[in-house]
Amino acid sequence: MNQINYLRISLIDRCNFRCVYCMPDDTELNYILKKQLLTNDELLTLIKDVFIPVGFNRFRLTGGEPLLRPGVVDLVNKIAHFPQTQDLSMTTNGFLLAPLAQDLYNAGLTRINISLDSLNPHTFNLIIGHHSSHGWEQVWCGIQSADKVGFNPLKLNVVVIPGVNDHEILNLAALTLDKNWHVRFIEFMPIGNNTLFSDRGWVSSAQLRDQIRQRWGLTESQVCGSGPADVFQIPGAKGTLGFISQMSECFCDRCNRVRLSADGWLRPCLLNESGQIDLKTALRSSQTMEQLQQQVRELLNLKSEINFKERNPGTLGTYSRTMSQIGG
Ligand SMILES: Nc1nc2c(ncn2[C@@H]2O[C@H](COP(=O)(O)OP(=O)(O)OP(=O)(O)O)[C@@H](O)[C@H]2O)c(=O)[nH]1
Ligand SMILES: C[S@@+](CC[C@H](N)C(=O)[O-])C[C@H]1O[C@@H](n2cnc3c(N)ncnc32)[C@H](O)[C@@H]1O
Ligand code: SF4
Ligand code: SF4
Questions:
Q1: Which regions in the chain score pLDDT beneath 50?
Q2: Is-contact 323 65, C-beta < 8 A?
Q3: Nearest C-alpha to atom 11 of ligand 2 is from which residue?
Q4: What is the mean pLDDT of the chain?
Q5: Residue 314: what pLDDT?
Q6: Ligand 3 contacts CB of residue 159 (under 6 A)
Q7: Are 157 and 47 in contact (CB under 8 A)?
Q8: 3-state secondary structure of 49
Q9: Interacting residues of 74 by C-beta distance below 8 A, sequence separation 6+
Q10: Of residues 96, 156, 154, 93, the one with CA closest to residue 125
Q11: Which positions are annotated as binding [4Fe-4S] cluster 2 (predicted)?
Q12: What pTM was computed for the model?
């Protein structure tokens, strides 16, 4: 059995963007009420006294948009300084990153993944559903700041939507030629916006690799990470290209992670809602840390049964929580 040692933590379910593939404009989301959110102290207790003793040592902060979480720098500082923490990273849309990048880095965040779906400001703003015309510029500024501060590896996430941004693949891949950046193309999943998914479908990583191979060639490569990306490189490029192929491949047999929502539910699989446990209520009802550890161990024992196996590219998922609420 795989070792499950990677916890993705959603710090908040709210977001300052409404990306078309994740949180379409017409979706009514029931945001978590403040009193239902894990407090910073509760989250730190769960990490230190429950997850670390059970064997977790890799943590990713996500959201919604994690940089909207009050006290995020302090949280980073505390999680980074647990002696057992081997990897602490964040997935962010980058909009609020520029003024925070240095503080996050100083607090102990060493690597960061930033979503960047287009190099064209107009297309970008359409994708993120942002009403400010400076969305792209502000995210680009966040990426530059992250680079300057020294986040390494610095990864850029691109969800590829046919007819929306798939014509930009070569331009996005070209970013890696002279920058030590790691661009990852993510196959669009039917969770978040099923209407768009039915309408546009998805592009396979194999097709993208063919395009890139024809232009520059492509070789297998590696970059530090805990996720499911297959990593390649354009010969001579400074950065790498990652492909996250959840529609065309099944990487569940190497799944090493579970997810904690901002209101304290532990979810064994992104694409299967079975088996979730409510750690917040258990914590608030004064169960002992040993009892909580035991609940988590039991869930991990069941995980391989829960892991999403019936991947059918034509199937639409029906989920009570969507991507922005789970954290990707
Ligand atoms: N189906 C599925 N998709 C995943 C899983 N983990 C990550 N992804 C997809 O990959 C996207 C990008 O993930 P990131 O948040 O950047 O994290 P990561 O790829 O695990 O990060 P690294 O540690 O840098 O490799 C997510 O939004 C999902 O679309 C997973 O366990 N299952
Ligand atoms: C849910 S977001 C949360 C973190 C942060 N707000 C961000 O966008 O990076 C995490 C990741 O999920 C990806 N994502 C969201 N909806 C998706 C979908 N339907 N299919 C594939 N990836 C998706 C985003 O592109 C992003 O890289
Ligand atoms: S959570 Fe991330 S992917 Fe979803 S709308 Fe917000 S920025 Fe976009
Ligand atoms: S779909 Fe579920 S089991 Fe498969 S890799 Fe993702 S989280 Fe793991």
A1: none
A2: no
A3: 328
A4: 94
A5: 55
A6: no
A7: no
A8: helix
A9: 40, 107
A10: 93
A11: 252, 255, 269
A12: 0.97
Angle, CA 157 vertex, CA 152 and CA 162 arms, to 5° = 160
Q: How is 258-294 classified by DSSP, letter by letter?
A: EEE-TTSEEESBTTB-TT-EEHHHHHHTT--HHHHHH
Query: How many Cβ atoms sit within 10 Å of the Cβ of residue 297?
Result: 14
Residue whose CA is closest, atom 5 of ligand 4? 252
**Do the Cβ atoms of 5 and 56 come closer than 8 Å?**
yes
Distance 100 CA to ligand 4 centre (A): 31
Q: Is 141 annotated as a binding residue?
A: no
Q: 293 vs 49, 222, 260, 289, CA distance in Å?
A: 8, 34, 14, 6
Question: Domains in the chain, please, with CATH?
Answer: 6-326 (3.20.20.70)
Q: Is 257 annotated as a binding residue?
A: yes
327 C-alpha to ligand 2 centroid (Å): 7
Amino acid at 40: N
Q: Determine if residue 252 is labeled as part of a ligand binding site.
A: yes
Q: Which residues contact 222 (CB under 8 A, 6 or more apart)?
A: 231, 240
Q: Which of 321, 270, 299, 313 is nearest to 56 (CA)?
A: 299
Evaluate: CB of 38 within 6 angstroms of ligand 4.
no
Q: Which two tokens stand for residue 311?
A: 């991947």
- Phi-psi region at 292: left, alpha or beta (left = phi > 0; alpha = psi -120 to 50): alpha
Amino acid occupying residue 254: R
Q: Report whether 224 belongs to an annotated binding site.
A: no
Q: Which atom of ligand 2 is nearest to the CA of 115?
A: 9
Residue 308 has a pLDDT of 83
Q: Which of 28, 13, 128, 19 is nearest to 64 (CA)?
A: 13
The SS3 call for residue 92 is strand
What percentage of the chain exceeds 90 in pLDDT? Answer: 87
Ligand 1 close to Cβ of residue 242 (< 6 A): no
